[in-house]
Design a protein that fits this description.
Blueprint: H1 2-12, E1 22-35, E2 44-53, E3 60-73, E4 82-95, E5 102-115, E6 125-137, E7 142-153, E8 157-171, E9 188-190, E10 206-209, H2 225-238, E11 247-253, H3 260-280, E12 288-294, H4 305-311, E13 314-319
Parallel strand pairs: 9-12, 11-12
Antiparallel strand pairs: 1-2, 1-8, 2-3, 3-4, 4-5, 5-6, 6-7, 7-8, 10-13, 11-13
């Protein structure tokens, strides 16, 4: 049965959406297992491994969980026998929005439990489960996770209290943006490999036009309010007598975090976001073309946070071709 759960979980990974930065979670938990309450087996230490998929554009996320307990003593067995408990379950997990640091959730599902083949052990059987917990995020990928879970089978009821670590992995899949995102859009240029080391837009003289720093939300093409205000001032300068006859090329760049394909697409989206804002502020769209270089043209060291921040940039070039 566990193979069917694994096949179903891996199949869901083919349908990743753009909602999450990471599309998979794995949790390693350990805690107390109250085996059967008043039945004939004792409490034990339980180990739980959970795999959760976050890539679906749906509020309930699929999870597969494996629980293992060993050396569970039997209350009324004079021979002091021990049994072993193994279960696999599939759950739906619903996150309750709270804060960026705290992430409560509830879950429910079904599974199958198995015990060692020793006298007086409960029989193996399917069960239903319900539970909830809390994730305390300590970084973008790591979180502390605490969970309580109740499983109810035909002849066995189990209550677990668990805690441990949660790790996110697997970048989301991002489709190429459409060629046109507005009514009048320029042709989007994506450089083919091998990509140049530096920007070379035209043989005619190039002027680097630099308004204040253009910032974006992390891993997005959404301009900050400060950047919009800066681009409004830039639009006035681009429409000045000195610059109004010049061609404008907007070049997007990223750091090297994430896949090369993801960064190439993101750089185009960011350049197009700047173009859209300039057009809204009165710049003639026919003057503007955009390019996306992704991560291939760094100006600083990507191994440091400061260097990556410098590489996440959009530059505006002016030429006399227009």
């Amino acid at each position: 049965m566990y193979k069917l759960f694994l096949i179903a979980f891996l199949s869901l990974s083919l349908y990743a959406q753009e909602k999450k930065e990471y599309i998979n979670e794995v949790s390693f938990l350990i805690g107390d297992s109250e085996n059967g309450f008043n039945q004939n087996i004792n409490r034990s230490l339980a180990y739980d491994i959970q795999f959760q998929y976050d890539g679906l554009d749906f509020p309930i996320r699929p999870e597969i969980s494996f629980i293992y307990s060993q050396n569970i003593s039997l209350y009324d067995d004079a021979t002091n026998s021990h049994t072993r408990y193994v279960s696999i379950m599939g759950n739906g997990v619903y996150d309750i929005p709270y804060t960026k640091l705290l992430n409560p959730y509830v879950k429910a599902g079904v599974g199958y439990q198995s015990f060692s083949d020793v006298p007086k052990s409960p029989p193996s059987s399917p069960f239903a489960d319900v539970g909830g917990g809390l994730k305390l995020h300590i970084s973008k990928r790591w979180a502390l996770k605490f969970e309580a879970l109740l499983t109810v089978g035909k002849e066995h009821t189990n209550l677990l209290a668990l805690g441990g670590l949660n790790f996110k992995f697997g970048r989301k899949y991002v489709e190429r943006p459409p060629e046109k995102e507005c009514e009048v859009c320029p042709k989007v240029i994506q450089l083919a490999a091998p990509a140049p080391v530096s920007v070379s837009v035209t043989k005619t003289p190039i002027k680097l036009f630099s308004p204040h720093k253009i910032r974006f939300e992390y891993a997005k093409a959404t301009l900050t309010d400060d950047s919009k205000a800066s681009l409004k001032n830039a639009a006035e300068s681009l429409n000045s007598t000195e610059n109004r006859a010049k061609k404008i090329t907007i070049v997007g760049n990223t750091d090297d975090k994430g896949s090369r394909a993801f960064n190439a697409t993101l750089s185009i989206k960011r350049a197009n976001a700047v173009r859209t804002q300039l057009v809204q502020d009165g710049v003639n769209p026919k003057r503007i073309t955009i390019e996306g270089l992704g991560e291939i043209n760094p100006v600083a060291d990507n191994t440091t946070a400061l260097g990556r921040e410098k590489n996440r940039r959009v530059i505006i070039l002016l030429t006399n071709e227009y």
